[in-house]
Every structure is written in structure tokens, then in C-alpha cells.
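Translate sequence into C-alpha cells.
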Amino acid sequence: MAPGLAVAGVRRHSRGRGYRGLQRTFSAPLLFDDIYAIVHNPTIRHWSTAFWPPGYTTATGRPILNLSLAVNYAISGTAVWSYHALNLAIHVLAGLTLFGIVRQALRLRSGQALRLRSGQALRLRSGQALARRTGAEASLIGFGAALLWTLHPLQTESVTYIVQRAESLMGLFYLLTLYCFIRGIDAERADASGPRAGRASWVWFTLSTVACLLGMGTKEVMVSAPLIVLLYDRTFVAGSFREAWRRRWGLHVALAATWLPLAGLVAGAGWNRNGMSGFDVGITPWAYWLTQFEAVARYLWLSVWPHPLVFDYGTFWARLSTEVVLDALVVLGLAVAVLVALWRRPKLGFLGAWFFAILAPTSIMPGRTQMIVEHRMYLPLAAVIVAGVAGLHTVMRTVRDHGQQDHGPQDHGPRTTDHRTTDHGTTDNRTTDHGTTENGPRTTGPRTTGQRTGCLVVCGLVVSGPVVL
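Result follows.
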């Protein structure tokens, strides 16, 4: 946010839900940093200068972001409809990519469990049924998580504020980097024994690297993407960092190489975004870090109860106080829990690492004007929602399974069958106890079909607080 334009306490109130709410954003005007990045940005008026953004806008050092603004300028000039349409399209694509990531990760875990069980006395038909069931659950959880993430009120600023396309577009490239890696792993396994072994997988790995490179040119927060891919490889695929490096060191080196152009872009902006953020902009790091304990704690709370949403919190400096200490205990406690989970429960630890790794650049690098900014939760919110939806699914499945065991068909005593021959030469099966019918056994307990209807609750979650879209 440009100095002097901060409007502390400006709130986004709810006026719609779902798609109708998103439609209303098409009429939102250019405001604040949009003016500098679009109206007063001559580089987006010509394709030859689109990769060279000026040094006083949100697009500084972010050529891919500036190029996307040039595309919109070529379509509609300064009319806002095309900018909002592209912002919405980016957000929807990011939601679909998140769905693919969650589904593939859960199917991969289920596939590992199936292989373990198939090593025992598991029949082929039972194995196929288990695969279908776990695949359906993976799709259900992925859909529920992606839907909630896409429609969550905390995403408002990243979608409706045009210039914050920097966050959503970077988020899309971040998700595509991981998704293409996952698809590469699938192709690697599918082609392992075929004549095209390795070809399809490296196509996906190349796309992953390209997405990572584009993300580096969109926003600096992309810096953690190569590390997250390596962590995913270790957690869900290889089982250890050593094995992940042994199998796919070439890919991980290629992803890490995208840090070089990022370093060049940061250097081109003076290493401090022209005096707006960095360790040499006259800001005491300790003072900024104290504010970030409150910021991260607030982000977590808004993930659960998104009210009130504030457009700009203004510039302020937290002092050591009881509230700051409590916020610090919460944040540091969660950080320690994530470190422990990475060792003891790696999959849960991966979600925690995702949350902190993406927030780390903006939380560690001191800034002069933006202390708390809700659009920074664009990607970290995914970890919170996936953990919540997956946890709720597990609870509902456990409750349902226990309910089936407690209320399933019951046997009320030994039964003997009397085979009698009727006058027509047919056999009449009768039982001697009082809990049967003349033509066969009758169960007194409720009948169950074994369907996983309880899992549908993850798609019916209602986000607390006003839905601001």
C-alpha cells in the first residue's frame, strides 16, 4: 500500500454469497495501489515494455504480474471488467488445482495402505472395492476442502482487489508446481515397466519447473515452493529426504535453480522493493516481528471465524505486553508442534510446514507500511481447511463405524432349521426360535447398507461469520 493511502479500519461487509457475490466484484472500481499499477503504469501499454515494470508499484520486480496487467489493458484499457474477470478465473483455477492436489495425495496414501493389505489374505474383489471406496473418499475430501477454500471470506481481498492478483496468481503457480509434480509421480509409476518409461513423467516435471519459474516472477513468496515439493516427495512418496534426493535429484535441482532469477528480480528492486521492505529500510526487525505474532494469531482466528474483515490495518508497532506474549506462545507453540509432527506424523506436519513456510517471507522480512494483511493467507488458508475437513471426515467415519457395530444385526440365540417337504415337493425352511419367519431368518436389529453417507457432511460445512465475496 502506498504511503498516505492507508485507510485503517475499512471493512468489507457481506452483501452476497457464492457466485452472486462474486459477480458483484466486477463493478468494483480501481482503488489505492490499482491506480499506480494500472492507470499510472506506462509499461503495460506496450508489449515491449510489459516485462519491465516501474519501480513504484506493486508490480515492481514482478514481470509476470505486470504482463498479466498488460493483457487486461490490451482488452479493456482501464475498464475494470476484464481485470476482475481474470482475477476470478485465476482463483477458480487455483481452487480446481487444490482439489487435484488433495485428492491425489489422499489416493496415494490409500494406495499405499491397499498395497499393505493386499500382501495379506485380501481377495482381489475386496481390494478393488477398497480402492473404489478410498478413491471416493479422497474425491469427497478434496472437493469439500477446495470448495470451502475457494468460497472462504478471507479470500475476498485477493480476488476483488485487482492489484492483489499478485497473491492469487502466485498461488496458482505455487499449486501448479506441486500438482504437476504429483502427476509426474503418477506417470512415473504408470510407465515404469512400459516402453515409454520416464517420458511422460518428465513432461510433468518440466511443467512443474516452468510453473515454479513463473511463480518466481509473480511474487517473492514463491521462494518456498521448491522446499515444499521436496518435503512432499519425502512425506508422501519417497519416505525420506535421502531417498527423494536419490530418485529425483535432477528435478529438485531444477526447481531450486528458479531461485536465481528470483534473486535477480529482488536485486533489481534494490533488495528492499525500493525501500518498502527489508532489513535496511529504517525498521527495527524486533519491533516488526512482535507485530507478526499478533498477525499470525489473527490469521488463524479469521480462518475459523472470518469477522471482522479489515481492508487495511494501517501501520502500527506492537510493544511487549501480555497480549503479545500470549500471541507469541500460540504461534511458537504451533511452530514447535509442526516440527514434532514432521518427525512423528509427517502428513500432518506437512500441512503445518505449508502454513508457516508460505507466511515466513512476509512475516520475517520487515515492512514499513503493512503489518497485518489478510491476502497473505491466500495459500496458508488451504492447510487450515484441509486439516479441518480431513479431521471432520475422520471423526464422522469413526462415529459411523462405531454406530454400525453397536446397532448392527444381532443374533438372539441358536437356531435350528427344520427342512420339511411340502405337498408340492418343495422345501420349506423353518426355524425353531421365536425370532424367525416361516420362510427364513428375520433380524430384529436395524438393517445397514454399508454406505458412507456420514462423510457427506464435509461438503455441507457452513463457514461461520459473514461470507464476503
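Note: The longest helix spans residues 81-118.
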